[in-house]
Amino acid sequence: TAFDERIDRRTRQVAVVVTGIGMAISHYSTAYFASTILVIGYVAYLPFRHGRRSTRSRRVLTIPVVAGVLVAVVAWNVVITRSAQNITNLATSVESNGLQLLPSSTGASLLSRFLNADVIPTVTPAQFVARVVPHLLRQDPWIHPYPAALTSRYPLAAVVVPATQRGVAPVYSNVANNVTAALNELLLLAIAVGILRLLWRERASPRRERSELAAVALGCLFLLGLLRLSATVSGLYNAPRGQVQGYPLLGVGLALVCSWLFRLRPPAAPALAGVVVACAGLMLFTDSGLSDLALGGAGADTLVNYGDAYQSYYFTDADVASATWIQQHVTGGTVVYTDSYGTIQLGQLGRQRAIVSSVIPQLLEPGAYVYATSTNVVDRTARATADGSTVTFRYPVAFLDRVKNVVYSTGTTEVFR
Prior knowledge:
Elements: H1 9-26, H2 28-45, H3 53-58, H4 63-80, H5 85-97, H6 110-115, H7 125-139, H8 148-151, H9 171-201, H10 208-229, H11 231-236, H12 239-262, H13 268-287, H14 290-295, H15 308-313, H16 317-329, E1 336-337, H17 340-348, E2 355-356, E3 369-372, H18 374-378, E4 381-386, E5 389-394, H19 397-403, E6 406-409, E7 414-416
Parallel strand pairs: 1-2, 1-3
Antiparallel strand pairs: 3-7, 4-5, 6-7
Helix pairs in contact: 1-2, 1-4, 2-4, 2-10, 9-10, 9-12, 9-13, 10-12
């Protein structure tokens, strides 16, 4: 709507502000993403204004329009609903860790680090406690943990993650996943070529709408590149979500590339069609989880009853019963400690406030509840993600038995206090 040449410019400007307000109210992350793109796109378009009044009078994204969207986003998320924690967490993480460009698999090849740049780095339990715990205590100064003399006796222990599929080495599955990751990068590269070509072609065109659209799409591409390359940023706002939100703009670049390819003549056209079908089939094979099921990988939670996805997203009857007990008996501002698995369950079943997503002795408070899922109790496995790092460790049952009592149990789940 913003760049439809058939609609009056004032109408389009009003539509941008109104939909900006709608995004702010309906989905905060989309509003953050869109408002950031508008700012970057506005700046990217400045060199193409040429200083002519006729050019300026045709622009849709003027300062009042962009400012109107920003005011709506800030007013709703910061002032009214006070739901800007992700922004403050990002600022704190950037201040303490920097952007962490290409941090994954340190010591690996540059290509491997690029393909895995948006994967949150996995650290050892000792590294997590040494680096992340002080960060969390600074971020949440209201936490008053047990004395260090006590918690130091219960260091976090590493846990051996069981094989995802016994007797099958996931070598071929890893190859398929790596090829698909490379195809995804080539797809983004094609989109970038289309957007840059559109921006260059329309730089002197009297149709300001197209050059403005290209500038905003370039802003989207820049933001996605940052999400793709920075572990700090992607740890709080993952790249796949950004790609889904950005595809209304990225689709313009992809459509341009497709239009160029469709002009090819035989025999290049049939060969290209075959390659495209084969690549699309491979991407469907891997992204659906079928490759892991057939070739021995981790497997999607919709296909197998093991692996991290299954532990994260499958709720047993005991999990539901324990989470329901928490909702019924924990009221007010009482804090509930749980790990990443438990956070997903409590969030899905209704309780989303006063949760600390790290069951680590150095962070636990006397008097607080601790929610242990079936993965924690049966598999003795816990996971925590904070400050751009993730850790998998043995659930600290010995420490919990020392300092807390079990107030609810199903046999496979427990609630401590």
